[in-house]
Write a structure and sequence with these properties.
3 helices; single chain; 26-stranded parallel sheet; 32-stranded parallel sheet; mainly beta; 70 strands
């Protein structure tokens, strides 16, 4: 657990206000509060104070010596301990600023073990504080706020090891409250009988940025965060190691708007003790039958190593009964779904009539299931497009004997989806390694690559007399029409511009699926565009022995990344065996480092340079050159 709090605010005490020192001026903190007027400061000196505080009708500052010294050690030295008697701090019709304090060991028989406030015009700021080891028999183990006129601001704080019996182990907000949390660690909190181990937000607006929400637990929904008819904006944060027994290991939104940018979801999990588990990372469920529109936007996020012991290891989005009239708009952009696992549906699942889905510039790699879709499943009337995405090395390890549906992508049941400029390669399934189109599914593939050693990269099948429909144009399909398994009721349209040639990826064994400059996919797409998700990324290659490739000429590619810190990769290709040297020089022509000097066979090679010289010193910022020599060939 991170225990470092960074003071990023400049605290000031008004010259016109009174500073009440505790215990010098008043023996107790509560006495100091009672004596304070508007804008006064109650300055608490180091110590442990066994008190249960009330701030009613006052706007004041309650702080440790942090505000006068900027010394963060005073946070852990200045403790308000509730003694397990009641809430540590209650506020009403007030606007307190709580700065640099530890709030612990509060207990409430109903709401808010650590801090409790609600029902009226109040605003509470919690800066550079620790809220720990508080409990509530109902909601809000650490903090509880209620009401449309309540604003809770938390910054540079830690909320950990708090417990609620029902909702919101760390923080609970309801009835229109506004919550803003920034640069705060919310760790190890629990909702032991219900939902929202870290945070629970009901009918409230919550904005979270630059936070770590890790290792929280909920018995039912949302190990990290639970939303009910709420709005959440989550940015630049991590959610790792959270767990729920039913749905949403990290987040479980119900009938809520969701906007997320640059969030890492790693190693969250669902145990499925309830029997209907879904969403190792996120389980979104729409159940509002009155609302007309819902928005879900998830961009630049990482879903990695999340686990569900039932449905959907990564992201699960569904609509409940009676919600067909609710329009759900979903945008998933620039996200990575890597190494997520489940019994069924590994990376992501979306279902529901009147749902509009856009998945753009995403990577689905290494996700694994026993059956059904390993990467992305779309069901029950969804419309949309999947564009510029890579699906690689996803695995369905067992044949689905009940529905016979499995593959990297599964689209069925009235769903109408376009797949454009995607690369779907090296996936595994006994049914359809790349794409399964089931009864009622209507799919168009354009400018895409489907390539695999599996028998059938594509399968199109009917269900209860309803055909699957697939149209393919300007795409590269291994073995062409022979690789597509279509039953007698389903429909396949093989349109113009399709290929059945090795796409000549640059370095597929290393997970690089850019195209060689002589790839048949270059310029062969509709309108003369390239086929697949990636453009040219290396020089020409030739195909040998079942897709193993070697360059057709000597090649030294641009290093990546460039510029770099602390390391970069240099890639070169040999069309034949040769004596090879690869040397780094500075602008004066002096040798900085020798990366390779030996005889090598034909093929591609990747060398990582850690930015060190031959004597182990780290290079300074500047311009450096790589020179490749292979027998009589030389290139800088």
């Amino acid at each position: 657990m991170i225990r470092t709090i960074i003071v990023s605010l400049l605290f000031a005490i008004s010259l016109s206000a009174t500073v009440i020192n505790v215990p010098a001026d008043q023996a107790t903190i509560q006495a100091g509060i009672d004596a304070a007027d508007f804008a006064d400061t109650v300055l608490v000196h180091p110590g442990t104070y066994i008190e249960n505080l009330n701030i009613v009708g006052k706007n004041l500052t309650l702080a440790s010596l942090l505000i006068t010294t900027y010394d963060t050690s005073y946070i852990n030295q200045t403790i308000i301990d509730g003694g397990q008697l009641s809430s540590v701090l209650y506020f009403s019709n007030a606007a307190p600023k709580i700065i640099g304090l530890t709030i612990q060991n509060g207990h409430s028989s109903d709401y808010g073990g650590g801090i409790r406030g609600g029902w009226d015009n109040s605003n509470i700021d919690l800066f550079n504080c620790v809220v720990r080891n508080n409990t509530a028999e109902n909601e809000g183990g650490g903090i509880w706020v209620w009401g449309s006129n309540i604003t809770l601001n938390i910054q540079n704080s830690e909320i950990y090891a708090n417990t609620a019996r029902r909702h919101g182990g760390g923080v609970f907000a309801n009835a229109g409250a506004s919550v803003n949390i920034d640069q705060t660690n919310i760790v190890g909190n629990s909702a032991i009988e219900q939902s929202g181990g870290g945070i629970s937000s009901w009918e409230s607006i919550t904005a979270i940025s630059n936070c770590s929400i890790n290792n929280n637990y909920a018995y039912k929904y949302g190990g990290g965060i639970r939303l009910q008819e709420a709005e959440l904006t989550l940015t630049n944060s991590t959610m790792e190691g959270n767990q729920a027994d039913c749905q949403g290991g990290a987040i479980a939104p119900r009938s809520s708007n969701l906007l997320m940018t640059n969030v890492s979801f790693q190693n969250n999990s669902i145990t499925d003790s309830c029997g209907y588990g879904a969403g190792g990372a996120i389980a979104i469920f729409e159940q509002d039958t009155v609302l007309t529109e819902r928005t879900i936007e998830i961009t630049d996020c990482l879903f990695s190593g999340n686990i569900s012991e039932n449905n959907t290891g990564g992201l699960d989005i569904r609509k409940g009964s009676g919600t067909d009239s609710v329009t759900v708009n979903i945008t998933i952009g620039d996200c990575e779904f890597i190494d997520n696992s489940a019994v069924k549906r590994g990376g992501m699942q979306v279902t529901g009539v009147n749902t509009y889905l856009a998945v753009e510039n995403c990577s689905f790699i290494g996700n694994e299931v026993l059956s059904h879709t390993s990467a992305l499943g779309v069901y029950s009337g969804v419309e949309g497009v999947i564009s510029n995405c890579i699906f690689a090395n996803n695995v369905s390890s067992l044949n689905d004997t009940l529905f016979d549906q499995s593959g990297a992508i599964v689209i069925t049941d009235r769903s109408n989806i376009g797949i454009n400029n995607c690369t779907i390669v090296d996936n595994q399934s006994d049914v359809a390694s790349g794409l399964f189109v089931g009864g009622g599914g209507n799919v168009t593939i354009n400018n895409s690559i489907l390539w695999s050693d599996e028998i059938y990269p594509i399968k199109v099948y009917s269900w209860e007399g309803v055909p699957g429909i697939l149209a393919i144009s300007y795409s590269d399909i291994k073995d062409g029409l022979d690789s597509i398994n279509v039953d007698s009721l389903s429909l396949l349209t093989w349109s113009d511009g399709n290929l059945a040639e090795n796409p000549l990826f640059c370095y597929p064994e290393g997970g690089i699926y850019t195209l060689a400059s002589n790839s048949p996919c270059v310029g062969s797409g509709g309108g003369g565009t390239d086929i697949g998700a990636f453009e040219v990324g290396c020089g020409p290659t030739v195909s040998i022995k079942k897709d193993q490739i070697v360059p057709s000429e000597y090649t030294l590619d641009q290093n990546y990344p460039n510029p770099f810190n602390p390391s970069t990769t240099l890639r070169y290709g040999l069309p034949e065996e040769a004596n090879v040297s690869l040397v780094i020089y500075d602008v004066r022509g002096q040798v900085v480092q020798t990366l390779e000097s030996r005889h090598q066979s034909a093929g591609w090679y990747d060398i990582i340079w850690n930015g060190e010289t031959t004597d182990g010193k780290t290079i300074s910022t500047g311009i450096y050159f790589a020179r490749l020599v292979a027998d009589d060939y030389s290139q800088v």
